[in-house]
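USER:
Working in pairs, take the chain set out below, taking as long as you need, and write a paragraph about the fold.
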Amino acid sequence: MGDLKMTPLNAEHRALGAKMVDFGGWDMPVQYTSIIDEHVTVRTRAGLFDVSHMGEIWVEGPQALDLVQFVSSNDASKLALHQIQYSGLLTPEGCFVDDMLVHKDADDRFLLVVNASNTDKDYAWILSQAAGFDAEVANKSPETAQIAIQGPKSLEILQPLVVGLDLAPIKYYWYGYGTVLGERCLIARTGYTGEDGFEVYLSPANAPALWRALLEAGRPLGLVPTGLGARDTLRLEACMALYGNDIDDTTTVLDADLGWILKLGKPGSFNGRAILEKQKAEGTSRKLVAFELTDRGIPRHGHECYAGGQKVGVVTSGTHAPFLKKPLGMAYLPVAFSQVGSAFDVDIRGRRVPAVVVPKPHYKRAR
């Protein structure tokens, strides 16, 4: 495996016969049985994910909020205690260093959860921006494991293992602290699948015991271990952006059609503000859209998009959706082609396959 990093659950995955792959420098399970079966099980029952590779960066001190506000697109001052928001970690050009979840743990303490392959880069970036702020920045990723349980049966499976915290009243994008197998854990009602579910943050030493306990408790309700393959198809059905595919350091928040996480009215300066204000006033030249193919084929990342014989964009994410059972994806297209119903073609190995822009998200769970 060379220099691949391993989560505390690596031996558990191998014991379950998972197919392991190099994922951003981590030895991770891509699937246990099949991506399609695991995907459908998450939509209909529940899936268990190892997301211990994700990064956890804590910002603490008298000016912790000011620093978070300066580096991010959303308005963290609006967060209540134990509330979470999706936000962009921005460059001075208004593009993405990364996307992240901001958790308000106290008035002077915030947890930023970032993407695994970006953790070191993000930590270094935030540190470089922290000069002049009375705040400490700490990368607690090596001290933190994270297990996600996702799907309509998640609450029923997880609750019996949690002491001191009633999970049912916790709203989407809120969290609390409860005792799990003797350890006080942060338990957030978040996920990257479009389903209801929870993410449990705990010590690496206790992660294997919780993994096994959840699998045992969930077996009668259909819970299965789920790999990164299904995690990707699930998030794509829900039109959740993937850093490196749909967003990166060349795409602005507005290009990515994520204006809802851009709060230009928040007080003070922040990275990219002037550029994003100008882009907001003048309009973007391109937009990240959802689309479906109207003929046979499977769109993939990097496939080119054409209209009137001219190249107009590129597919950022694509698949044959396991639950919706149709070929779909996301792509950057000129604003003129970004309206729902706009037709274009996707070049799949030299064959131009017709496609149409559709509303986001492709999939939205019933609440």
Observations:
- The helical segments are 10-15, 35-44, 64-71, 119-129, 154-158, 207-218, 228-237, 273-282.
- The mean pLDDT is 97.
